[in-house]
Structures are given as structure tokens and as C-alpha cells.
Amino acid sequence: MFKSFAKPVILLALITFLSPFAPAETVNLEKVTALDLPDSFVNAIVFSPDGQTMVTGDLNGETLLWERATWGKTTFSPARSSHAETADISYWGTLALSPDGNIIVQAYGDIGDVAGRNREGKELFAFSYGARVYSVKISPDGKFLAVGGLKTHVMIFDLGTLRQIADLPSDHEFISNLVFSPDGKTLLANYRRPKHLFIMWDTANWQAADKFSLAAGIRAPHDVLFSLDGKQLALANVFDPEIQFLDLATRQSLKEFHEHSRTSYQIAFSPDESLLASAGDDCTMRLWDLRTGANFKTIQTNHEVSAVAFSPDGDLIAFSVLGEGVQLWAVTR
After folding, report:
1. Residue among 320, 288, 297 nearest 307 (CA)
2. 105: number of CA atoms within 13 Å, CB side?
3. Contact by Cβ (8 Å): 295, 257
4. pLDDT tier, 217 (very low <50, low <70, confident <90, very high otherwise)
5. For the whole prediction, is pTM greater than 0.90?
6. Which sequence spans correspond to the domains of the chain?
7. Which of 12-26, 108-122, 183-197, 241-255 has the lowest mean pLDDT?
8. Looking at residues 253-269, what average pLDDT do you find?
9. Rounded to whole angstroms, how far apart are CA atoms 232 and 248?
């Protein structure tokens, strides 16, 4: 449902938001397979650039590689802890893949260790963030790695020189989300304490270009995504089931998706940004048409759905079901 804020500004923003999308079309989902991982807590799923390998990260530190041809698995990194030891960092994914697919970055959220390895498992770098890690993100050009967590600082690591190049300070702490803009010119950091705050860091000089608090009616996010044009943020909220779209120019909520009965943990855009997938605490994976705002597909599961991702070609959706494993569904139009 659209909200009726300052109408001329919002109408213009809505036109901008909707115009890239093609007319609504029939989209079908068909189950491909279920990858059984009993007692798992998969909180991160990423695909290689060619879409032929899927990487999953578990809360306990286990990282698995899955080959799309057969969905056979290889253990890239074994478990390092029990789920009970890391229960309070559950839905944060601490796994990143470089845009060329050659570096897998893992952060062990409970102890703050961060390591990067090539696809063969050779360690390229390792360092400590110095506190629990809640987010690791790589810039679209593959040059920078950003690390944030239970500190006031965001650490910036240069993947070309394998050196730390910046330590971004603030007067807030508990950095729960980091996300680069699609053009790579901005790093958005979301801080939770003493109140929710967003800081926009300029990646050319690592200076704070902007900061803002959540406006009335904007909820604190579990997950944050930039739209492809970089003008909006999609927010999966912590305490409320709504998924919101925030206009960065007006800081107003443009649109809300209400169908989840409990909070959504992660959200993902399809490569053409015509669809949004959401993983929910209400034991559902939902698929949304971004042109119409309709939740037109819902997959009900027996347990919470914590992570979700599209393959680069948009032909697959992968999502994790806690205690069960990962389901893969084909997307056809």
C-alpha cells in the first residue's frame, strides 16, 4: 500500500521507481531440488558470477561449495563453533564473494576473525576486526572489503594491496548492515546504538558524505539493499513484518509490503530488479512483483527461512530453511 506523503515529490519518485520495469508478466516457480543439511543454520547464500557455483555460509562457520550441474557439495571451510555459541548473531550473513568469483571472504562473527581465500582454499589474507562481526561486503568493482560489527568503526581493506586503508569512526556502535551503492561510490553503514543511524561514506576519500536517522514510520532493518539506480533503499525490518522502500532524496517511505506475518530476515532483488524475494521468520519465502507490489508467490516451509538469493541469470532462487538445508526453485516466465 502506498502512503500519501508530500504528493508531487512522491508521485515523481514512484514514477522513477516503476519506470524501469516491464509490464507485469506471468512468473512461475518450480522446485528443482532440496539440499539436505540437518541441524544447519545457513545465514548466507551467494552465487559465482557465472552462476555455476553456489556458496553457502552457516552460522557455525561452515562454508560449502555447490556445483550447479549436479548440486554436489565440497566443504570449503569446516565448522568452527556450535550454533549455541553464536545464537545472538543468527540472521547476519558473514560471507562475501568477490565480483570475479575468485576470493571467498569469511568472517567468524563470534570472535571477529576475517579471512580471504581463493577458490582452491589458499589463504590470501587474515586479520581481526577486534569485535564480533555482523557484516562483510565487497565493493562492486572488487577493490574494497568493508567489515562492521560490535564497534563504532567500519574497517576498509584493499583487496588489491591486501592492506587496511581506512578505519571509519562514528559516535554510534553495533554496525548491523553495510551495503555499497551499485556504482560503488557510496558505502552505507547502519548503526544500532544508541539509536538507529545511517552514515553514507564516500569511497573516493572515505569521508562521511551524509548521515540521517530513521524518520517516523521507518523501522530498523535486518537487511538493506540499494535499488539498481541507487536512489532508494529496500529495508527488511527487525520488529515489524513490513518490507519498506525508502526514498533517499526525501527520506520518506514510498511503499510497503505487508504480507509477512512476522519479520523478514533477508531480501534479494532479481538481476533485472523486476522481482523481490524475501526470507521470513513466518516460515515463508515470498516473491513480489515490484511493478505491481503484489506478493504473487509464497512457499510455505516447516521452519524459519533465513537467507535468500537469485542466481546471476535470474533463473534460480535459493533459500535456506533452518534445520533442514537449502531449497532451489526454477524461475520461468
Report:
1. 320
2. 30
3. yes
4. low
5. no
6. 1-40+219-333
7. 12-26
8. 82
9. 5
pLDDT value of residue 2: 27
How many other β-carbons are positioned within 10 Å of the β-carbon of residue 152? 17
Q: Yes or no: is domain 1-40+219-333 CATH 3.40.220.10?
A: no
Bin 283: left if φ > 0, else alpha if -120 < ψ < 50, else beta.
left
pLDDT of residue 317: 98
Buried b (16+ CB within 10 A) or exposed e, 15-36: ebbeeeeeeeeeeebeeeeebe
First to last CA, the chain: 25
Distances (CA, A) of 291 to 14, 39, 137: 10, 37, 28
Residues 6+ apart with CB under 8 A from 10: 2, 3, 4, 247, 250, 252, 254
Of 165, 145, 50, nearest to 95 (Cα)?
A: 145
Lowest mean pLDDT across 46-55, 68-77, 209-218: 209-218
- The grid coordinates of residue 125 equal 589474507
HSE at residue 162, side-chain half, CA atoms within 13 A, is 10
| Angstrom distance (rounded) from CA 135 to CA 53 | 22
> How far is the C-alpha of 129 from the C-alpha of 153, rounded, in Å?
9
Q: Taking all residues of the chain, what is their mean pLDDT, rounded to a whole number?
A: 86
Q: 3-state class of 96 per DSSP?
A: strand
CA distance 124 to 248: 37
For position 215, what pLDDT does the model report? 65
Is 253 buried (19+), middle (13-18) or exposed (0-12) by CB count in 10 A?
buried
pLDDT at 18 over 50: no
Give Cα 187 to chain centroid, integer Å: 14
- What is the largest distance, in Å, between two alpha-carbon atoms of the chain? 55
Which residues have a Cβ under 8 Å from the Cβ of 67 and sit 6 or more positions away? 52, 53, 74
What's the count of helices (H) and strands (E) in the chain, helices before strands?
A: 1, 28
